[in-house]
Amino acid sequence: MTPAQTAEINAHFHRYNAAPLAEFCGLSPTQMHQLMSAPLGVASPVRLRAELPASVLDRVPLLRLIEELLRLVQRENSIKLTAGGALPRKFLHELYAHRLVPEEYVDAGFISINREIDSPVLHTTHIIAMAAGLVKKVHGKLTITKKGQLLQAPAQRPALLRLVLEVFTEKFNWGYFDGFGDDDSPVGQLAWAYSVYLLVQFGPRIHPISFYADNYLLAFPFLLNSVREVPYMTREEKLGSYYAGRVMFRFAKWFGLVEIDEQKFGFQAKPDEVTATALVTELFEVNVGAKA
Among the CATH numbers 1.10.10, 2.60.120, 1.20.1250, 3.40.50, which is that of 175-286? Predict the structure, then answer.
């Protein structure tokens, strides 16, 4: 092969990798690779903004819950955990009283928060704080670490948000609360930043959650093979259920990125609908590709 032919082939692949694709909703293969391999990195089309004022950070529910947990542990010096290693009920009630992530069935009186596992978001708050090294368990007691103390400073809040986001997306298993018993599928957590990109691209308008799940599946059709078949739903339906629960009702809702209109009851009930909040673009700087 001549140098000229080699150069022509290289130019062809460069043009392909740089061209926006409809199945990636306007991102190029190069951009998608950067988004997947180093989300939030300098070359990624989705990055945290350099300036994150307190007025923005105050509206991130999971961050606020982490901060309230750190304050609580520091106030108490240490918290004696239950025999199962969970937060005691009185501290769960104190955290829930901040009303940062209201839970419909709790507020309606159908569920009482008697155990940490009764509230997925409070349980996750404890898990993330531990995995991030903000708190530690010593002889059955929860104590704050030096890292946790340092990151409580107001000037360190952007760094705390980045840490919480990185631990949530990289270390926490998004399938933990699915209820299907086979939470090893990476649906939703794989290329999680692509869902942020989709919310910026389409979020100002109301869409059913299935709209986002369909666009996610269009970009990553191979993920259908990671979903186990069940008798009562198709693989596509099960993937959509994974996506709704993991991405919208947990990740996006807990970080304050969406408002969800839930319509569960009645013969004429519509699918759950979602709208992006202003917080999406206040938290993330996104290079939006060409719309398909």
Answer: 1.10.10
Taking residues 149-165, report their average pLDDT. 98
Domain ranges of the chain: 54-170, 175-286
Q: Rounded to whole angstroms, how far apart are CA atoms 137 and 81?
A: 9
Give the whole-angstrom CA distance, residue 128 versus residue 164.
Answer: 7
Burial label for 20, CB within 10 Å (0-12, 13-18, 19+), is middle
Q: In this predicted model, which residue has the larger pLDDT, 275 or 292?
A: 275
For residue 6, the tally of other CB atoms under 10 A from its CB is 10
Sheet of 207-208: strand order equals 207-208, 273-276, 258-261
Task: Please give the C-alpha separations between residue 6 and each of 13, 14, 16, in angstroms, as whole numbers.
Answer: 11, 12, 16
The pLDDT of residue 123: 97
Average pLDDT, the chain: 90
Angstrom distance (rounded) from CA 274 to CA 100 = 19
Question: What are the tens digits of pLDDT across the range 180-198?
Answer: 666 589 999 999 999 999 9
In tens, the pLDDT along 47-75 reads: 999 999 999 999 999 999 999 999 999 99
What does DSSP assign to residue 230? B
The Cα 244–Cα 208 span in angstroms is 10
Q: Is the pLDDT of residue 263 over 90?
A: no
Query: Is the CB of residue 52 less than 8 Å from the CB of residue 157?
Result: yes
Q: Which DSSP string do the residues of 90-146 spell out, in sequence order?
A: HHHHHHHTT-SS--HHHHTTS----SGGGSHHHHHHHHHHHHTTSEEEETTEEEE-H
